[in-house]
Amino acid sequence: MLDPDLPDAFARHLLTTVAAHAFNALTITRATGAGEPGEIVYVNDAFVDLTGYEADEVIGETPGVLQGPETEQEVLDRLGQKLGAGEVFHGRATNYRKDGSEFTMEWKVIPVTEDETGAGQEEVDAALDDEPIYHVAVQREAPDA
């Protein structure tokens, strides 16, 4: 939990720094509300390292850019069901790097709603009942099972 006494601009700066230097790949997409994948609006350097795609190659695309013939449709269906219900998704799927090599990605996707109040955790939890406007995905190459 971030200290609520931090000025908003500095808190944003801190969180942006964390995201930029995280070991896990991070992706933010716009929620469509139609059960379809939204366009990517942010990736961090760990995403570039994991996938081989530069940020400017995927911004504006959907996460489907990582999918291919061995990507499991049932996992994608479960992802859509969870996000459609406003729930956090956690799963693994076969994905593809820019060079075409396969890897198993483990990821969590979190629906994020707008919280303009700047209020405490109770208000944030209540806001989660609203429609998500973004999805934040935390990704990594899955460790061998």
How would you sum up this structure, described in words?
- With 145 residues, the chain is an alpha+beta fold.
- It is 30% helix and 26% strand.
- The protein is built from 5 helices and 5 strands, in the order αββαααββαβ.
- The chain has helices at 8-21, 45-51, 55-58, 73-84, 121-127, and strands at 25-30, 40-43, 89-96, 102-112, 134-141.
- It has a 5-stranded antiparallel sheet.
- The longest helix is centred in the first third of the chain and has 14 residues, at 8-21.
Could you name the key traits of this structure?
5 strands; 145 residues; 5 helices; alpha+beta; 26% strand; globular
In short:
This protein is of the alpha+beta class and 145 residues long. Helix content is 30%, strand content 26%. It has helices at residues 8-21, 45-51, 55-58, 73-84, 121-127; strands spanning 25-30, 40-43, 89-96, 102-112, 134-141.
